[in-house]
């Protein structure tokens, strides 16, 4: 059982269209947890995990970046939240841990990590079935192949649970997860929900394994297109002489309203705390948007679904990233407004 501070009674987390109460039924005491990938998202997620699991549990972290591991262990010692170890081997994490979370950049890294976990042969048996939760945004084909590689030889369960909310939500422990896991028994889904609740506030169970990454790519395809549409429309309105803030307020009370218009408006000064208002620093990197769009296009081709706007959007993101690498993806607006002024 997880202590009440970790999962306050009555805390709810969404599943499909239903919101359910969480009861800590499936997590063991004195368990060992693994976390692989201490990047911009993984580091704060692992920190929240360590703070919320029982003090008697152990967390083992792994990253190819040794400095990130050392910093993590030092910070955890200062915070005195409970035992933390690091290892230079993903296999060692998997051998010792019951629940293993991965947060890695691209499909190739997920393949690499699971190859190094599985290649040496069968993992030692634990009292309960091992659970791998991959929170990386990758394509459904890779996710299903890795799940098969884990599950076919009975090395544990593999669940895809990509996330939404960015670094701010990762730090605050308020991420939204969308996950794919077999619901044949129900116990697996409950266990996944309990674990995700340690790092986020919502978890959507979308169906069988692989549906989490499919859902995430569908969402981020909309985001990619909406971001361009808002940048184009704001640029157009401003060229017609409209006041940017008034135009944004009108759109946000009308049918054009969407996350890029309302929360991440691309015009500097329209939203005080948006990346656009701090020279497009922070936020959702244009490289990640480009990666997610490519994954969505590949997955759509694989399933035969047309994406009429994808090629144009992809070309634009490539052109913009070449000029503004590392900036928030709303920098598309600056690129378009600079062209209009030429
Ligand atoms: P990141 O590049 O900051 O971190 C990835 C970490 O993985 C790095 O610390 C890197 O050293 C480590 N790593 C790479 N290869 C490894 C290997 N073989 N073994 C062990 N560690 C390895 O990426 P991020 O921004 O934290 O994103 C992680 C995932 O979350 C990505 O799939 C991303 O698309 C997704 N995501 C990111 C955001 C965001 O705003 N940053 C939002 C939602 C989803």
UniProtKB/TrEMBL annotation:
One Pfam entry name: NAD_binding_11
EC number: 1.1.1.31
GO cellular component, one term: mitochondrion
Residues of the active site: 216
Listed GO biological process terms: L-valine catabolic process
Keywords, ordered alphabetically: Branched-chain amino acid catabolism, NAD, Oxidoreductase
Catalytic activity: 3-hydroxy-2-methylpropanoate + NAD(+) = 2-methyl-3-oxopropanoate + NADH + H(+)
Top-level taxon of the source organism: Eukaryota
UniProt pathway: Amino-acid degradation; L-valine degradation
Domain 3-hydroxyisobutyrate dehydrogenase-like NAD-binding: 210-336
SUPFAM superfamilies the UniProt entry points to: 6-phosphogluconate dehydrogenase C-terminal domain-like, NAD(P)-binding Rossmann-fold domains
Enzyme class: oxidoreductase
Domain 6-phosphogluconate dehydrogenase NADP-binding: 34-207
GO molecular function per UniProt: 3-hydroxyisobutyrate dehydrogenase activity; NAD binding; NADP binding
Coiled coil: none
PROSITE patterns to which the protein is assigned, alphabetical: 3_HYDROXYISOBUT_DH
Family affiliation: Belongs to the HIBADH-related family. 3-hydroxyisobutyrate dehydrogenase subfamily.
Name assigned to this protein: 3-hydroxyisobutyrate dehydrogenase
Species: Talaromyces stipitatus (strain ATCC 10500 / CBS 375.48 / QM 6759 / NRRL 1006)
